[in-house]
């Protein structure tokens, strides 16, 4: 039975983690083209932190809003969709937590085209580490970088959930992986990589033979990463961990070295085929998603505090 109210975290203005609190909130009413998902778990993401601390003020954000760009759970009401009640699903992006209410709640009303049926033996907590993080890693590595077994991959800014996932996938594929972090204390966290490098901001000339690069620091180090590449190499800019979101006066003729290619990945367009490929890949290679920590829903405030203060290495998930 679906109750009239649920617990949810609702934002109307910038909110520090210490001030985050669950409240009683109406369970959303189902409408055509949308399905009601009983949320079992969800991951925390950097983009949600940006929303909570600042972006919530933007005119294009629906307010009040329940944040959360991904979740895993079961269909509670299939509406007019092809889903059936109780079906195991994942959902991500498409405006979740910004244009419409997201996953920081016991139920989420989601557009059917961004909800995907999955078959997996992973626990709810393990599943919750997959959707946004592994979809972004997958798209960056295969759609943008066309990663092959024979490649040497540089992951710049690797000590984040996305970095760990990219290393895991690339190593399972058989690639040589070089990973960087700007903190000496975090080098042991990159033990899955073939080589872990302390990032001083200037890596050009540090190592030869890099054919593909996943740039997670972003515009702050992008030019240096481009200069690390072999001719014919590809750089995919996916992250902005460096806190720089654009490059003023960007001149592609001077900025991009001859024979090197630059692309980027935007994770707003998942498909059923890609989500299935990811879960099949994990199963075939006997991989478990990289979990940093799991918190119960009632402890989400502490989880947000730990995320804001970088107390957890890896993906934080919330179980509902």
Task: Tell me what the structure shows.
With about 325 residues, this protein is of the alpha/beta class. Helix content is about 20%, strand content about 25%. The chain is built from eight helices and 15 strands. Strands 3, 4, 5, 6, 7, 14 and 15 form a seven-stranded mixed β-sheet that branches. It has a six-stranded parallel β-sheet with strand order 10-9-8-11-12-13. Helix 4 links the parallel strand 8 and strand 9 (about 175-180). Helix 3 (about 130-145) crosses helix 4. The longest helix is centred in the middle third of the chain and has 14 residues, at about 130-145.
Keywords, please?
alpha/beta; six-stranded parallel β-sheet; 27% strand; 8 helices; seven-stranded mixed β-sheet; 320 residues
> How widely separated are the two ends?
17 Å
Backbone CA Rg: 20 Å
State which percent range the strand residues make up.
25-35%
| 3D shape | globular
Question: Multimeric state of these chains?
Answer: single chain
In a nutshell, what does this entry contain?
Helix 3 (131-144) packs across helix 4 (161-173). The protein has helices at 46-53, 124-128, 131-144, 161-173, 222-226, 252-255, 272-284, 300-308; strands at 5-9, 22-26, 34-43, 70-77, 88-92, 107-111, 115-117, 152-156, 176-181, 195-198, 210-215, 229-237, 261-264, 291-296, 315-319.
